[in-house]
Every structure is written in C-alpha cells, then in structure tokens.
Amino acid sequence: MAIRGPRLEFSVGAFLLLALASLMVLAVASTNQRWSWGGEGYELKARFSQVGQLRKQAPVKIGGVTVGQVASIELDPVKFESIVTLRMDSKVKDLPADTSAGIFTSGLLGESYIGLQPGGDPDVLKPGEEIVFTQPAVDLLQLVGKYMFSGGAGGGAAQKPNDGEQSPATEPQP
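^ Outer membrane lipid asymmetry maintenance protein MlaD, sequence as received from the core. Prediction below:
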C-alpha cells in the first residue's frame, strides 16, 4: 500500500531542490567562480610565452595571499604571446614597477595561479600598465618526456673513445 499525498510530494520536491542547489554550489566552487559581479579594483597586464593550464578567474597571489584574479587571457597576433589581464584588489596599491609575475601550480596536480614578487623600484605600476618581468608556466608532461627520452639522469648516450685512442688510464703498461 503506497502512501501518496501533498506532504510526500512536497518533501520529495524540496529534497530535489536542495540537491540541485548543493550541486550548483559545488560546481561553482570547483571552477573557481566568484559570486561577485564587478567590484572595485584595477587591471594590470602581463605577457607570457606559455600559460600552461592557467584559466580565467585563477587567483593572483603575493606571498600566498590572494590579491586578485585573472580577468582574461588573449593572444597577441603579432608576437604570438599570451596577454594575461589581472584584476587586482583595490587594497593592493603601489606595486613596484619591477614586480615580476610567474605562473605556478598548487601542488603536483593543483590549480594554476599567478604569483607576484614585488621588487624594490620606487616607481609604481599604474592601472593598465604591463608587468615586464614574467616567468612562463612549466609543463610537467613536457619535462618528464624530455627526461625519459634523453637517457634519464645520465644526460644522454655514453661517450665514445677519441678516434681509436686509448685514455691514459687504460693504456697497457710496458
């Protein structure tokens, strides 16, 4: 005998809505989405030859503290470099003009982020200016491939003797 009624249907509906809301929150959290639309801050630009797995809205950090996020990643059609636009928090002011930017990964398989290292220049970066000193992302798969196919830790093939000559250590003694 099945129990049906408005209470059961309401309970099932409420449960489904709660499950969908939970999945939505999980999806937003796992893709680095932020719930803010707009907000205060300013933009800086940086050029990289390789961005690896860097994504839009990835964090920008100074000393491990998030101070902004990646606003956009575009290709320069002339130099074929990636132009990354950083949306910096308005609380982070007066970054030195010689600040450097690098693309790093949190852990072995973690998310990519941009790490800023402030310099000591008395001049500061103004909104819209470009960070000149950059370090591209390191592609771990490419590094492993180079290591595997270059002969491993030995650094390559064994050395050949010099045109049939013997080294002094292997010459026969008279």
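The longest helix spans residues 6-30.
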